[in-house]
Structures are given as C-alpha cells and as structure tokens.
Design a protein that fits this description.
Blueprint lengths: L9 H35 L10 E2 L1 H7 L6 H9 L6 E3 L2 E5 H20 L1
Antiparallel strand pairs: 1-3, 2-3
Length: 116
C-alpha cells in the first residue's frame, strides 16, 4: 500500500526533499567508505597465483596413478598432506605436473632405500 505525504506549502515540500537527499547522501557516503575499506583490504591481502596446467579431480587422479589406489587411500594422503592438492570449497583438485613430481620423488626415495 502506498503512503502519500501531503504538504501544506511548497516550502515544506522543499524541506522534505532536502532531508531525504541528505539521508541518501549519508548512506552513499557510508557505502563509499565501506568500498574504500574493502579495496584497501584487497590490496593488502596477498593472492597466491593459481598454477596453470592440467588439473585432475579425484576420479581422474585414481585413473592417472599407476598403482590405482583406493579412494580412501587418496583421502588418507590428503588428510596427512602426503600428496600435493588444492581444495576449492569441498572439491579436491590435483595439478598433474605436481603429481608427476610427487610420483618421481617417491620412486627415487624407494631406489635410495634399496641401494643402501
């Protein structure tokens, strides 16, 4: 339902309009201050560069790994931070180049242990 405001004089109307404009200016001023604060915080917050390359989800990782581990094994590695991973919300992502390095490091460790 609409509310109508009646004014007895043109001066009352002018005062009402000015008061509404001042309220709007205050709100706009507060919004501008908040925006400036957010911009400052954004500049101060260091961003990690997102690596470029081929990404794998968990299912693709299971197919990619030569030993074809169980899903629970991969989640165990992630939980113990034994495998390089990225988490976006609830989704796990793996950078293929980092997985390749991880696999190679594991193989050299095994060779070194066998040679001793």
């Amino acid at each position: 339902m609409r509310q109508y405001t009646s004014f007895r004089t043109f001066q009352e109307f002018g005062e009402y309009v000015l008061a509404q404009m001042e309220k709007s200016e205050v709100k706009v001023g507060k919004l501008e201050m908040r925006l400036e604060t957010l911009e400052i915080l954004q500049k101060r917050t260091p961003r990690k560069p997102v690596p470029v390359g081929d990404w794998l989800n968990v299912d693709e990782l299971l197919d990619y790994l030569p030993d074809k581990p169980a899903l629970s094994t991969v989640y165990g590695w992630v939980g113990h931070k034994q495998i390089p991973f990225y988490k976006s919300g609830k989704k796990l992502r793996f950078l293929k180049s980092e997985i390749d390095k991880w696999l190679l490091n594991g193989k050299t460790t095994v060779k070194a242990e066998n040679e001793v």
